[in-house]
Design goal:
- Helix content is about 25%, strand content about 40%.
- By secondary structure, the protein is α+β, with helices and mostly antiparallel strands.
- The strands form two sheets. The chain has a five-stranded antiparallel β-sheet with strand order 1-2-3-8-7. The protein has a three-stranded antiparallel β-sheet with strand order 4-5-6.
- It is globular, with a radius of gyration of 13 Å.
């Protein structure tokens, strides 16, 4: 069975949203799935139903990289919608992106 990038990202987000309960920023570990590959992430952040990941993991999760133009893969760029809200934050080192907001 082949799982597309979109389905993989949606699976990760839906799985994580189901386990979230707190309406405060919580650090936790999660397992990301992409095809047959699993990646254990020790430092993911959750806030309510939002899942925040280190920006360097975005390409693994979606196949796209974060750029000034939006999410890009090669020559294809998808701009962030203006109503996407806050989707990026800095926290003691790495930038985090809200994969729930950009899914």
């Amino acid at each position: 069975m082949h799982i597309s990038r979109t389905h993989t990202l949606a699976l990760v987000v839906l799985t994580c949203v189901q386990m979230l309960q707190a309406d405060e920023l919580v650090e936790r570990s999660v397992t990301l799935l992409r095809g047959d590959t699993q990646l254990a992430v020790e430092t993911a952040l959750t806030y309510g139903e939002e899942l925040w990941l280190d920006a360097s993991l975005l390409e693994f999760v979606s196949g796209f990289e974060l750029s000034d133009e939006g999410l890009c893969s090669g020559d294809i760029c998808i701009p962030f919608p203006e109503d996407a809200g806050t989707w990026e934050m800095e926290r003691d080192g790495p930038d985090f992106v809200c994969v729930t907001a950009i899914a």
